[in-house]
Amino acid sequence: MASGHRAQWKGFLRFGEVSCGVALYTAASTSERITFNTINAKTGNRVNRVFIDSETEERVEREAQTKGFEIDNGQYIIIDPEEVAATIPESNKTLEVQAFIPCNEIDDIFFDKPYYLTPDKMNADAFVALREAMKNSNVVAIARAVLFRRVRTVLIRPHGKGLIATTLNYDYEVRSSKKAFEKMPKLKIEGEMLDLAKHIISTKRGEFDPATFEDRYEAALAELVKAKLEGKALPKPKKVEISKPNDLLAALRESAGLLKAGTVSDNKPKRTAANANKGAGRERAARGVASKAASSGAAPRRKAS
């Protein structure tokens, strides 16, 4: 793994009677996002968090704090931190493969957090053998291990030269889609309306390229920090143009470019890969300014981890 990346977990990957040393590295992180501290507007000083007793309104020091489970309104069972620690399962530092299943058998709604799974140099042959066998068999692995003080189920799948290990949500953590969609009306779309929708899809086909995605919120924050640092006028948000079609079919025709000439025209420049890359470049530049501002002490600092 590249320098600067620290393994979040080290242990063994076991499948059948074969074991190999492995390490988990965070694959997705929010550490590069711009964050703010809470400041006292009158003094300009940073505000510290203080815990207050809800009844006496007195300050409660850290050593006097404990855990509790609410059994009734305002009634708690006190749980000692040592009792909590005793419930944490012991780790044998092993990702034990439980089963191999077809790639398309698991619903990605269960996906939690991805990690890069890399081999120990001494056991690379076993690691590569598993990766290639999974590719050839078109399967993924379901494994289990104690990770970060919890027993976690992990989905392991080939990814480039290594493997991706994605922790999975438990069944009780995933809400049923039936309840979310229970008020969904039963509609049958056909004829021109369906054809127009399909036509729009065909004209908007592309490829998945995350490098072209712009985090407009982060870019806007960076521009705000830059303006404040340089004493310039604050950037004004662009007015959002809201389409107000009264007829869904007319809106579909407009989107498909099938309305009569002169009635509606779409003069907006089409988004190309070049434009997307320019936008991404502007975003990186703005973030660099915010980073400089943070390091100079003149802009909001990042929260301490």
From TrEMBL:
Low complexity bias: start-end ranges: 287-299
Presence of the UniProt keyword DNA repair in the record: yes
Keywords: DNA damage, DNA recombination, DNA repair, DNA-binding
Domain Ku positions: 57-186
CDD domains in alphabetical order: KU_like
An MF annotation (GO) of this entry: double-stranded DNA binding
Positions of region (Disordered): 261-305
Biological process per Gene Ontology, one example term: double-strand break repair via nonhomologous end joining
InterPro entries membership: DNA_bd_Ku70/Ku80 (IPR006164), Prok_Ku (IPR009187), SPOC-like_C_dom_sf (IPR016194)
Function: With LigD forms a non-homologous end joining (NHEJ) DNA repair enzyme, which repairs dsDNA breaks with reduced fidelity. Binds linear dsDNA with 5'- and 3'- overhangs but not closed circular dsDNA nor ssDNA. Recruits and stimulates the ligase activity of LigD.
Subunit annotation: Homodimer. Interacts with LigD.
NCBIfam families per record: Ku_bact
Family assignment from sequence similarity: Belongs to the prokaryotic Ku family.
PANTHER family xref list: NON-HOMOLOGOUS END JOINING PROTEIN KU
Name by which UniProt lists this protein: Non-homologous end joining protein Ku
Gene: ku
